[in-house]
Design goal:
It is built from nine helices and 14 strands. The protein has 281 residues and is of the alpha+beta class. It folds into two domains: 110 residues, 2-Layer Sandwich (D-amino Acid Aminotransferase, Chain A, domain 1); 159 residues, D-amino Acid Aminotransferase, subunit A, domain 2 (D-amino Acid Aminotransferase, Chain A, domain 2, Alpha-Beta Barrel), CATH 3.20.10.10. The strands form two sheets. Strands 7, 8, 9, 10, 11, 12, 13 and 14 form an eight-stranded mixed sheet that branches. It has a six-stranded antiparallel sheet with strand order 2-1-6-5-3-4. The two termini are 23 Å apart.
Length: 281
C-alpha cells in the first residue's frame, strides 16, 4: 500500500508526482484558499463532518465557492480507499481560488503518515514559549477582513512562529493578544484544567480558529468527570492550572511541560484525556 496519496476532485487518485497546480494558481501565489487536516484512524477520517463544517465556514469568510459536502466526502473516500488501515494518517483537503485569470477552484486531497515528531509530542509533551500578535484580544471579531476563525492557506506567520520557537530551543508557541491574553498556538488549540473544569479560549470574541479536537474533548469531558467551559486567561494564570495542553487534529493532545522556560509539573490527567480522544501513544 502507498505511503502517500494524492486525489484530485473530478479525477480521483493520481500518481503522487502529478502536477495539479497551475503556475498562476492563487493558492500558491497569494495563499488564497482554505484547507482542513483530519486524523485518519483505522483507515477512516475522524471528525470529518466537523472538519467539513469548519471548512464551509472558512469558505464563507473568504467568499470562496467551495464544492458541496457530498463532493468533498467522495474525494476523501477516494483518497483513503487504498490507505493501510493499520497506519495512522493525516488527510488534508485543500481548496484554492484557482487560476489568477478566473475559472473553477482547485480542490485536492492528500494522505500521509503521522510524523514521528507528532507521536513523540503526545508521549513527551512540548516546551512552549509565548509571543504577542500585537493586536487586542477582540480586534479580529470586529474586523472580518482579518479572517478570524478561518483556516486559510496563508500559514507563513504560523510557520515563522514555529521556526522562532525552535531558535529559542522550544517546540511550540502560544500566541498572545497585544493586551496579554492567551489565544492559540500556530497549529493547535489551548486547553487547560482548573478546579475540575476543562477550559479553552472562546473562538467567537477572539477570532481564533475553533479547534475541532478541543471542541470534541470539552463536549465529552463529563464522561471522565470534568466540567467544560470557555474563558479568557493570561499566561501567569496558567501557572496555577492542574494541566495545560495543546490540542490539534493530527498531533492530538500534547501536554505543555514548560512555558517560557518555567517547567510545569506533569499532569496526572494527560493519559486519561488522550485515551478519551483515542490517540495512540
Amino acid at each position: 500500500m502507498p505511503d502517500r496519496v494524492v486525489a484530485v476532485l473530478g479525477r480521483g487518485v493520481v500518481p503522487t508526482e502529478t502536477p495539479i497546480l497551475r503556475a498562476d494558481d492563487l493558492g500558491a501565489l497569494r495563499g488564497d484558499g482554505i484547507f482542513e487536516t483530519v486524523h485518519v484512524r483505522a483507515g477512516r477520517p475522524w471528525l470529518l463532518d466537523e472538519h467539513l463544517a469548519r471548512m464551509a465556514g472558512s469558505a464563507a469568510r473568504l467568499a470562496l465557492p467551495l464544492p458541496s459536502r457530498t463532493a468533498l466526502v467522495e474525494l476523501a473516500d477516494q483518497a483513503l480507499a487504498g490507505w493501510d488501515p493499520g497506519t495512522e494518517g493525516a488527510l488534508r483537503v485543500v481548496c484554492t481560488r484557482g487560476a489568477e485569470g478566473g475559472g473553477p477552484v482547485t480542490v485536492f486531497a492528500t494522505v500521509a503518515p503521522v510524523s514521528p515528531a507528532a507521536r513523540r509530542a503526545r508521549r513527551e509533551g512540548v516546551a512552549v514559549v509565548t509571543a504577542s500578535l500585537g493586536f487586542p484580544v477582540a480586534a479580529r471579531a470586529a474586523a472580518p477582513w482579518l479572517l478570524g476563525g478561518a483556516k486559510t492557506l496563508s500559514y507563513a506567520i504560523n510557520m515563522a512562529s514555529l521556526r522562532w520557537a525552535e531558535a529559542q530551543h522550544a517546540d511550540d508557541v502560544l500566541w498572545l493578544s497585544g493586551d496579554g491574553y492567551a489565544l492559540e498556538a500556530p497549529t493547535a488549540t489551548l486547553v487547560w484544567l482548573a478546579e475540575g473544569t476543562l477550559w479553552t479560549v472562546p473562538p467567537e470574541p477572539t477570532g481564533i480558529l475553533p479547534g475541532t479536537t478541543a471542541r470534541w474533548l470539552l463536549d465529552h469531558a463529563a464522561e471522565i468527570g470534568f466540567d467544560a467551559g470557555e474563558r479568557l486567561i493570561q499566561p501567569a494564570s496558567l501557572a496555577n492550572a492542574a494541566g495545560v495542553w495543546l490540542a490539534s487534529s493530527v498531533r492530538g493532545l500534547a501536554e505543555v511541560r514548560s512555558l517560557d522556560g518555567v517547567a510545569r509539573k506533569p499532569a496526572s490527567e494527560t493519559e486519561l484525556l488522550q485515551d478519551l480522544l483515542g490517540y495512540a501513544r
